[in-house]
Specification:
- This is YtzH-like protein.
- It comes from Neobacillus vireti LMG 21834.
- Pfam families: YtzH.
- The protein is mostly helical and 92 residues long.
- The protein has one domain.
- The chain contains five helices and no strands.
- α1 runs antiparallel to α2, α2 runs antiparallel to α3 and α3 runs antiparallel to α5.
- The longest helix has 19 residues.
- The radius of gyration is 12 Å and the shape is globular.
Length: 92
């Protein structure tokens, strides 16, 4: 059974919150973020403001999946992570 739009948004925010709180993550989480963002980007229920945020999140996840030091990548994006979650909450 596929995840609903709300479930996808909740899962995305959970992963981003975990990255922000733990300052670490996995390549698999970055790949999961990419899949969630792709699915949400084509969903007509998603607010255009959220789609702009999703573009930034997608770039973050792509870079994270390819970097040699994922924990450093997450640490350097701490402000972005909390801002993205706050902004997604505002528009969804």
């Amino acid at each position: 059974m596929p995840l609903s739009h709300d479930d996808q948004v909740t899962l995305l925010k959970d992963i981003l919150n975990n990255h922000q709180a733990d300052c670490c993550g996995s390549v698999a989480e970055c790949e999961q973020i990419e899949r969630l963002v792709k699915s949400l980007m084509v969903n007509t229920q998603v607010d255009e403001n959220v789609k702009n945020i999703l573009q930034e999140v997608y770039q973050y996840s792509q870079h994270g999946a390819q970097t040699a030091d994922l924990d450093q990548h997450i640490s350097s994006n701490q402000d972005n992570l909390s801002q993205w979650v706050n902004n997604i909450d505002q528009f969804s």
